[in-house]
Amino acid sequence: MQITYDESFGVVPLLQDGTNTKVLLVHQIGRRGDVFWTLPKGHKEADETSEAAALRELREETGIQSVILKPEHQFSMQYQFIFESQTIDKTVTFFLGVVTNQLTNITQPEEIAALGWFTKQVALEKVSHAEVRRVLEEAFAVDNIFGTH
């Protein structure tokens, strides 16, 4: 079986809501029609930086325009899956992003079934994949996420 290498970029969008930190998850419609909660992510376009791709995908999937990307906080995950008789070896790099406005808009209903802001505990229960859960744990563990430096 042929192995194809694939790379995507995304954002772990965090919001300070009173005393709670919340993360935005997308209820994604997969290639095979399965639906699962995950973080917004996608592929680079030509001549696009990793950070620009992550921000564009966040905007395209959630409608969020205003986010402060924290590129010093990156989280990677790797996994394999089979699609159309090919093994896909996938790497996803997420950047921590601070969001100041929780308004969202589903702009790709063929890919996104729903959007939701969740506390850490609820998000960890909702996400379907262990690697996404690990990325969330790492992101929520970052000190001074909403600080000025």
Short description:
This protein has 149 residues and is an alpha+beta fold.
Record keyword descriptors for this entry:
149 residues, alpha+beta, Nucleoside Triphosphate Pyrophosphohydrolase, seven-stranded mixed beta sheet, 3 helices, 47% strand, globular
Description:
- The protein has 149 residues and is of the alpha+beta class.
- It has a single domain (3-140), classed as Nucleoside Triphosphate Pyrophosphohydrolase, CATH 3.90.79.
- The protein contains 3 helices and 7 strands.
- The chain has helices at residues 50-62, 120-126, 130-140; strands spanning 3-17, 20-29, 35-38, 41-42, 67-83, 86-99, 112-119.
- Strands 1, 2, 3, 4, 5, 6 and 7 form a 7-stranded mixed β-sheet that branches.
- The N and C termini lie far apart (47 Å).
- The model has no long low-confidence stretch (mean pLDDT 90).
Average per-residue pLDDT, rounded, comes to 90
The CATH architecture can be named as Alpha-Beta Complex
CATH class: Alpha Beta
Shape category: globular
Radius of gyration: 15 Å
Distance between the termini: 47 Å
Largest sheet properties:
7 strands, mixed
Number of structural domains: 1
User: Strand fraction band?
Assistant: over 45%
User: Please, how many helices?
Assistant: 3
Note the run of SSEs as H and E: EEEEHEEEHH
Number of strands: 7
CATH homologous superfamily name? Nucleoside Triphosphate Pyrophosphohydrolase
How helical, in percent, are the residues? 10-25%
CATH fold annotation: Nucleoside Triphosphate Pyrophosphohydrolase
| Sheet/helix structural class | alpha+beta
Poorly predicted parts = none
